[in-house]
C-alpha cells in the first residue's frame, strides 16, 4: 500500500522545539507531531510512497531511532487516523 500527505496548501506548520505544530486547514484541527511523524509527513509530501520505500528514505535522510517496519506501520496508522496521511 502507498501513502500520501495532503497538499502543502492544506497544512500550516510551525516548528516548536522538539515538536511541529500542524494546522490541517480542511479539518480545522491542529496536531502536534514529534519525530518520526513529522519526518514521515515531510517525505510523503514529496511523493506517495509505500512502506518499504518510506522506511528506506527515513533511514537515508534522518536519524530515526525506531526505524522498523512495525514502528513505521504504527506511525502511519496514527497519521491516517489523524487525517494527515491518506492510504492509496
Task: Give an overview of the whole structure.
The chain is 40% helix and 27% strand. It has 88 residues and is of the alpha+beta class. The protein has one domain. A 3-stranded antiparallel β-sheet has the order 5-1-6. It is globular and about 30 Å long. The termini are close together. The relative contact order is 0.24.
Strand content: 25-35%
Outline, from the CA principal axes?
globular
Mean pLDDT across all residues, rounded?
A: 93
- Give the termini separation: 6 Å
Instruction: Give start-end ranges of low-pLDDT stretches.
Output: none
Strand order of the largest sheet: 5-1-6
Describe the largest sheet.
Answer: 3 strands, antiparallel
Total domain count: 1
Instruction: Quickly give the structural class.
Output: alpha+beta
Number of helices: 3
List how many beta strands DSSP finds. 6
Radius of gyration: 12 Å
Helix content: 25-40%
One letter per element, helices H and strands E, the order comes to: EEEEHEHHE
